[in-house]
Amino acid sequence: SDPRVLTVLAAGMHKPYVHAADDFAVREHFSFANQADAACSYTDVAFDRFATRFPKISTAHLYPGVVRTNWMIELPLSVRCLAWTLCGACLWTCVKSGDDVGVEFARALLLDEKSGGGGYRTVGPRARPARKNWGKDGQESEEYKKIVWDATASTLKERCGVDVS
After folding, report:
1. CA-based Rg of the chain, rounded to a whole angstrom?
2. Could you say which of 44, 108, 116, 118 is the most buried, measured as most Cβ atoms within 10 Å of its Cβ?
3. What is the pLDDT of residues 93-111, one digit of tens each?
């Protein structure tokens, strides 16, 4: 068998959340920027660790760029109209459709040169390797990964009864 995992959440595009050690859940230092940094960098760490633990599984963590979706549908009509007027028409021409992105990343995962070999990689727009922001703001990569993984393992055990340590 040749198992493969595909995840999507701004792979490698956010810096490490600087308060991960003392505020893992981003409650004390909440902001949208901190929430994005935490969610995306925690996902990077989790799949890096899962790939280490399960080396026969090929894992691709993706950052597709901006994708045309109906994410504004939840907003009030007046806000949607304003957003569309200000930037929607311009954005519509610059972003990719979900179908195009799906084809790009399915190809990246299914036609992978690592077939059967497992491993972890981040994939950016046009199925190219994504950059990684490890080490920004004085964070040491392995130290940050340990903090995040230990907190993740503890949370999964406490809330889901799953031991991934």
Report:
1. 18
2. 44
3. 667 778 887 877 777 677 6
Which residue stretches of 1-140 are H helix? Answer: 32-53, 77-83, 89-94, 98-110
Q: Where are the domains of the chain?
A: 4-160
What letter does residue 72 receive in the DSSP assignment?
G
Burial class (CB in 10 A: 0-12, 13-18, 19+), 41: buried
- Residue 152 CA to residue 129 CA, distance in Å, equals 25
- Give the integer Cα–Cα distance in Å for 87 and 70: 15
148 in Cβ contact with 42 (< 8 Å): yes
* pLDDT band, residue 90 (cuts 50/70/90): low
